[in-house]
Amino acid sequence: MRKKAKLGLAVLSALALLTTPATASAAESSSAADNPPAGVGNSHAGAAHTGVYPNVFVKAGISRRAVEARVNATWQQLFHGDPGSDATHRGDGQTIYYQLTPDMAYVEDIGNQDVRSEGMGYAMMIAVQLGHKQEFDSLWNFAKTKMQLQSGKEKYFFAWHTDTTGKILSTGVAPDGDQWIAAALAFAEGRWGNGDGIYDYGTEARQIVHAMWHQSDNGGVDMFDRKYYLPLFTPPATFLYYTDPSYALPAFYKVFGAIDKDDKDLWDKAYDAGEKLLQTAHDPRTGLTPDYANFDGTPYLGRGETPTDNSYTHNFQEDAWRAIANVNVDAAWFGTKPWQKEYSNTLENFFEGQGVTTYVSRYHLDGTPLSSGQNTYEPAHAQGLVAMNSTSAITATDSVRREFVRDFWNTEIPSGYARYYDGMLYMLGLLYDSGKFRIWASPAEH
Predict the structure, then answer these.
(1) Where is the signal peptide (predicted)?
(2) Distance (Å, rounded) from C-alpha 430 to C-alpha 71?
(3) Could you report the per-residue pLDDT of 195-252, keeping only the tens digit for each?
(4) What pTM does this model have?
(5) Where are the domains of the chain?
(6) Is the domain covering 9-434 a CATH 1.10.10.10 domain?
(7) How far is it, in rounded angstroms, from Cα 195 to Cα 157?
(8) Which residues does the annotation mark as catalytic?
């Protein structure tokens, strides 16, 4: 039985109608909540004001019908495709979604054979964006029942990984996973309304979001640092006092400020700090961002590391790929700023020089390819990075942006061992680029 949604469809319809006359007419001729008007290009206002989400596929000459088919095919393969030979050899399969019980499911990191909070958050967000409530509820049931910590200094945070039965392998926290789970729950409230118990999505979202600033009230460690207003790399390990640029999700902070009104000022500061980090952390020559950074945006160096070594921490590798989309989702939702255009143009100019269809996946920030560090099952021209690079077309102004979109379009849906991380970023990239990654809960102020 549903309860009344606190941030419901009527609010979303009102958002969609705060538009130009042409957009308003489109909204009136269909369901504005289920079918927000699609657009192309970028906007100084952003979709939160106009209801128009950029569709860079259409801008690159790809038909809406073809885009719809690709989105559906990717969902079907990654969530309901071939499971692989057996539980110990799933590397020959397609799906990453596995039903543990009739009402509980998880997404597996195939290479590591575990379940990670980031993947659960991604999968929940994908499910709510595409309207797949059964899969959403099954994923949330696993995350809530198996992964969320219910006591102690990390109460309401999520263990960053479990095995595939739900046994917690580490109580450490990865803040990106918690943020994605909370945002997905907020959008589930906006799209479907609230149910009973753990399916009261809004209450669950607010509980998680509020805890991000208030664990210190109970002797714990907050997820966000109150001096810099940025997420810590892995609370409660305070000796790891740095951040990860890909954990900065400013677009979500507008939503969090709307559902956690007591901390709205903190979320506003987090929004500004997150944008600033993404603006300053990348190398101005290449647009490449380090995996981990100090709070001022400079690359983080671990003990004994040097700027020229191949360590994961301070080079452009898997974590850093996601920072590209974080910049562009913020622009799509809340308006494109000059620095975001400059960033995307710089990034595209660098990768164009590397070969749009042939660049490798890991670099020093100055653009020198790493001499080692490739996973044995990770393609050199990784599908996840191809997807994230294509999102730069949302804000880029140079004509080469269409080449990055077409490179993504011509990339196969990930399968095999690499299908967890590359597959998640591939699916999210489709949503970002097609205008299907939408605000299903209304930020009170923009």
Answers:
(1) 1-26
(2) 6
(3) 999 999 999 999 999 999 999 898 888 999 999 999 999 887 767 899 999 999 999 9
(4) 0.90
(5) 9-434
(6) no
(7) 22
(8) 118, 319
